[in-house]
Structures are given as C-alpha cells and as structure tokens.
Write a structure and sequence with these properties.
Layout (H helix, E strand, L loop, with lengths): L1 H5 L2 E8 L3 E10 L9 H4 L5 E5 L6 H9 L5 H7 L5 H4 L4 H11 L2 H4 L2 E6 L2 E2 L5 E3 L4 E2 L5 E7 L2 E7 L2 E5 H11 L2 E5 L4 H11 L8 E3 L2 E3 L9
Parallel strand pairs: 1-13
Antiparallel strand pairs: 1-2, 3-11, 4-7, 4-10, 5-6, 8-9, 12-13
Length: about 220
C-alpha cells in the first residue's frame, strides 16, 4: 500500500528482557503520524462525491477507477476516517459467510434479532413514520387524518422482524456508503500529507523522514 511508504521512519533500540535495551536498532514506521484533510478543503462545496461500494470492490479497485491509479487508496481511507480496513470496510461475500458461520449456527441465523418499523405514509404520500426504527414486537402506530372533511383515526401495526442474518447483512451494507475526494483536489491532499508526515528538527532528528530514539525517548508525532 502506497500509504505505508509515505510514513516516516523511527530507528528504535531493540529491547532485551523487560527493562534492558541492547545496542542494536531496528527501523520501524511511525504509525502515530497521520495526515488529515485540510479545513479549507472541508469547506469547499462539491469537493466530495458520494459513492456506493459495489460487490467485493477493494479500496485499490476504486482508486484505480476513480483516480486512474491504485495508489490513492489511502486518500479514500482518509476521506472516510477508515483506520482499520478489516472492520471499517464491507466484507466480501466469502468473508461475510465465514464470519456468519463462526458467530452463529445455521439455525441461529434465522432467529429474530430485533423488530423494526416499516414505512407509513398518509393519503398525500407524505412519510409520517420512517422505516428501520427499532421497536417492540407489539408496537402500534395511530394517527388522525382529515378525509373529505371528516377526521379519521387510523391504526397500524407497522412492524417487521429482522433475523440475525438480515441484521449482519445490513451492518455490512451500511459500510458501502462512502465519499470520495474529487480528483482535482488530490494534489492538495498529497502536498499537505507530505508536509504533515515530515519531522521537524529535534534532538532525535536525522532527516525529514527519519528520527532515532533511545529508551528514554518517545518518538515525536
């Protein structure tokens, strides 16, 4: 992933036992350094575009199709505050199936997880009760409406059951709605990221992309 190549390095002492450090050093990436979207860009209307992840699309697939290169998957993560792709990105159908049969038995997948409302509209077609609100199984809904000059009381039981399978599928599908930064702002994101991911001079400073720390030091972020 191109993002990890951008992260600066930390030359860190190798620990021997619980307290003692040897004279050997190891170079690791500083994961505490993380770019962010500039406030100026957040204020620009139209800087972001809604996107619906299709099927088993991966971040690099979307990056290739949208930006012309798979190397901007990290920009997608940044725009959607995705920090762990394993939990924040929708699972593939194969991974979802494995997850479901690890968490549930086949019989449990058909069991009811909760109940929720179905949509209710009035005679004018206006939504007066949204779908998807968690309720009890015996929930009822009542409203009054003026029909031909007569007040009519209408009663509904707009409830449907949601199985464990449907619940997990919905959770996974909710992750499919993301935003993409429009292509013309990519250079701005890259320039800012390069600045943020560079070290400033300090006692540990070696160069803009590398610091060397001792057991008494914590790498600056």
């Amino acid at each position: 992933m191109a993002y990890f190549r951008r992260l600066p390095n930390v030359i860190y002492p190798v620990q021997q036992g619980k307290k003692n450090f040897s004279h050997d050093y190891s170079t690791i990436k500083n994961f505490f350094k993380r770019p962010y979207i500039p406030n100026d860009l957040l204020k620009i209307y139209g800087a972001f575009e809604d996107y619906q992840i299709q099927g088993d699309e991966r971040p690099d697939n979307i990056s290739q199709n949208f930006y012309g290169s798979p190397e901007y998957d990290w920009v997608i993560f940044l725009a959607n505050n995705i920090q762990n792709v394993r939990t924040d990105w929708p699972m593939t159908q194969s991974d979802l199936n494995k997850f479901l049969f690890t968490k549930y038995t086949e019989a449990q997948l058909s069991e009811i997880h909760h109940y929720e409302t179905t949509e209710v509209k009035n005679s004018l077609g206006h939504v007066i009760l949204k779908a998807g609100i968690k309720v009890k199984s015996d929930f009822t809904f009542q409203y009054t409406e003026l029909v031909a000059g007569v007040t009519v009381i209408k009663n509904y039981t707009p409830v449907k059951d949601v199985t464990n399978y449907e619940y997990e599928l919905t959770l996974n599908d909710q992750k499919r709605s993301i935003v993409l930064i429009r292509q013309e702002f990519i250079r701005t994101i890259e320039t800012d990221a390069n600045t943020i991911l560079r070290y400033k001079p300090s006692s540990s400073y070696i160069n803009p992309t590398t610091i060397k720390v001792t057991d008494q030091c914590i790498p600056p972020i």
